[in-house]
Amino acid sequence: MGGYVVVARRYWNRPGGGGAVCAASAYTFDVMGFTPVLASPVRVDVGGYVDWFGIDLSRYPKVSLYSVGLRAFGIYLRFLMGETIRRAVERFGAHIVFVDDGTYKPVEGFIVKSGTKLIEYIHFPHEVSIDKKFKGLGLHYEEDPYVLERYSRFPLNIYWKIYVKLLPRYLRENPFQIASLVLANSRWTANLAKMVYGESPEVLNPPIAPNVEIVEKPREFSERENAVVMLGRFSEEKRYHWVIEEVLPRLRREVPNTKLYIFGGAKTKTALNYLTRLEKIATKNEFKTSRVVDVDADVYLIPDAPRKTINAVMDRAKVFLHATVNEHWGIAVAEAMARGLPVVLHKSGGAWSDLAEEGAYALGYTNSEEAVEAISKLLTDEGMWKTLSAKAVEKAKNLTLEKFVEKLSNMLTRVL
């Protein structure tokens, strides 16, 4: 094997689950003897990938349509993915393309004519978000809490409506008709894809970043405090408000003085507004709040905390709680498992299907009463806690970068 492989991504320049998958895929192609080419509509800046994921992409060639950084209109970059792929393939003479976005319809003919092998990775099928026949699943944009939070008000509602109207012009109709290999991040996503396209992608779970330690011997139950940890950006769909309003008051009646730690990114105005709203909700429920971990409080709302602080709290808490409904994957859940922290999560999405394996590796719930029951058991039952802590580490060990490289290499060998 050898030659160039285009790894095309809408935006390389920030951390996230999609960036981790594309970085790990580029690394896999490198291991297989190819030279990855990092392609994007705008300037590719991967300087942070070592800190974010422990993967160094700096030595790989890069291609962009425009040499500017992103300032706004990020979702519209999808409409430039086709031309980005074309330019990178022509410039480097590549015959393989890995892309994690299905908006390459304008270059389908070029891909076929040039004999390019296309590998598409599906994080979530866009069709479920924009096609009204999928309403009722809670995934259509008119039902999705993230979209409703961010894009329901003027002027962003206009921005979103234009995007939804234009998307079908760029979205390929069926990846199985053009791609040599179609992948999905979870069994849940694969099932949605089958609903849309009539065929199931192969499942390739995202890896835990190699700079996230998988703890061989987690701290003992007796050395931990009655504390619950949550992790993820400060955003409506994470349902932190529901936890503070519905779960924590009931939980403290069952296990008094239980503390709640919420860590999240808060670099946008929307996130900061939500953070302020959470503080008001906590105060209304007579909970003392803090934005730092080294004072006494009931609810800790910690924006943009360093990984060292997050790990330290995870290592002294007893439970990780995930409240998002229909999470496509759940990188925060995987990271908690790597610390040996037992997980309680909603019975939906890829986190439930693939990380919890529907109850084999974590406890699930459908409402606040079930969530309180599961958390209470883990806070008070040492035997159950030890079992699920060991299960969490076992699951995390199957999600390493090495496992990802092995699985993807085997899949690619069949089609290249």
Classification by helices and strands: alpha/beta
The radius of gyration is 22 Å
Residues in helix, %: 40-55%
Query: Which stretches are low in confidence, meaning pLDDT under 50 for 5 or more residues running?
Result: none
Task: Tell me the number of strands.
Answer: 14
CATH architecture of the largest domain: 3-Layer(aba) Sandwich
Instruction: Report the CATH superfamily of the largest domain.
Output: Glycogen Phosphorylase B
The overall average pLDDT, rounded, is 94
Please give the alpha-carbon distance between the first and last residues.
9 Å
State the strand order across the main sheet.
Answer: 3-2-1-4-5-6-7
Question: Biggest sheet: strands, sense, closure?
Answer: 7 strands, parallel
Count of the separate structural domains: 2
Give the overall shape, derived from the CA principal axes: globular
Quaternary state, please?
single chain
Order of helices and strands: EHEHEHEHEHHHEHEEHEHEEHEHEHEHHH
User: In CATH terms, what is the fold-level topology of the largest domain?
Assistant: Rossmann fold
Would you state the CATH class of the largest domain? Alpha Beta
User: Helix count, per DSSP?
Assistant: 16
Strand content: 5-15%
